[in-house]
Design brief:
heterodimer, B: alpha+beta, 3-stranded antiparallel β-sheet, 5 helices
Chain lengths: ~60, ~180
C-alpha cells in the first residue's frame, strides 16, 4: 500500500450503487455457457482433517 | 474510499478478462495471496478493502444465487448424483474466487439449461453493486459481489420451481449453502 491509498475521493458517496459490472462479467456468471467453477471442498462431514492439503504439491 | 483501491476495484470488475485472470490465480493458489506476484497481491488487497467497506453497511443476511459449472465428466442426467456425492449435508467448501451472484434466482438461471445447478447462499458478506436488469417488482435487482475465500457449509440439495421472465415455470437444482464465518 502507498500513501495514496488513504486519499479519499470526494465523488464516491454512492460508488456501489452507481457501479455496474461489465456485460462480459455478467455473461460469464449468468450467460448460457457461464457459471462459477464448483467450490473447493475443504472438509467432509464427520471428518476433522481437511479434505486435502490446503495447497497443491509443487 | 481510497482512490487506488477504487481504481483497482473498477479495473477488476470492469472486465471479465481481468477478473478471470485474478480469480484463476486465486484458485491455483487456493486463496493464498502470499503466493501471488506483488502487483496482483496489491490489487487483491485493494479489492478486498473496497468489498470490506461495502460490507460494513450490511445489517442482515442476504440470500443470493450463482450458477455453478458442472465438471466435463458429469453428464446432464447425473448432475444431482454428482451434487449429492460431492456436496453432502455438512460438507464445508471454499470459494477461493470472487463470485458474482444475484438476489433473484430467475436472473441467475434464465439463460441456463435446466440441469445446471445453482448455489443458494445465505450470507451477510459481500457488496451490492449497481442495477442489474429488473425482472420483477421487487427492489432486488442489484448484483451481489461475494468476497474471495468465502467458507460455506452445504445444508441441502433441492429441486425447486422457478418462474422465468416469460412466466413459464422450470425446475431448478439448488445447492444450499450457509456462511460458516
Amino acid at each position: 500500500m502507498t500513501a495514496d491509498d488513504s486519499r479519499p475521493d470526494p465523488a464516491d458517496a454512492d460508488f456501489f450503487a452507481r457501479f455496474t459490472l461489465s456485460d462480459d462479467i455478467r455473461a460469464a456468471a449468468f450467460g448460457a455457457a457461464g457459471g462459477t467453477p464448483p467450490p473447493r471442498v475443504i472438509r467432509r462431514p464427520g471428518r476433522t482433517e481437511p479434505d486435502r492439503p490446503e495447497k497443491p504439491a509443487p | 474510499m481510497p482512490v487506488r483501491a477504487k481504481a483497482a476495484f473498477s479495473r477488476v470488475f470492469g472486465s471479465n478478462t481481468e477478473l478471470r485472470s485474478i480469480n484463476d490465480e486465486l484458485a491455483a493458489n487456493v486463496g493464498d495471496i502470499a503466493e501471488l506476484d506483488d502487483s496482483t497481491r496489491l490489487t487483491v488487497q485493494r479489492v478486498d478493502r473496497v468489498i470490506a467497506m461495502a460490507e460494513a453497511h450490511n445489517i442482515a443476511d442476504n440470500i443470493v444465487y450463482t450458477p455453478i459449472q458442472v465438471p466435463a465428466g458429469v453428464n446432464s442426467g447425473n448432475v444431482q448424483g454428482w451434487l449429492k456425492n460431492s456436496f453432502a449435508d455438512g460438507t464445508e467448501v471454499n470459494f477461493d474466487r470472487y463470485t458474482i451472484s444475484t438476489h433473484e434466482m430467475s436472473q441467475a438461471t434464465q439463460h441456463h439449461p435446466q440441469w445446471r445447478p445453482v448455489c443458494e447462499i445465505v450470507t451477510r458478506r459481500g457488496a451490492y453493486v449497481g442495477k442489474a436488469p429488473k425482472t420483477n417488482d421487487t427492489n432486488s435487482n442489484a448484483d451481489h459481489l461475494l468476497p474471495r475465500g468465502m467458507q460455506l457449509r452445504c445444508i441441502g440439495i433441492k429441486t425447486v420451481p422457478v418462474m422465468s421472465r416469460d412466466g413459464t415455470v422450470q425446475s431448478r437444482l439448488v445447492l444450499q449453502l450457509e456462511d460458516t464465518q
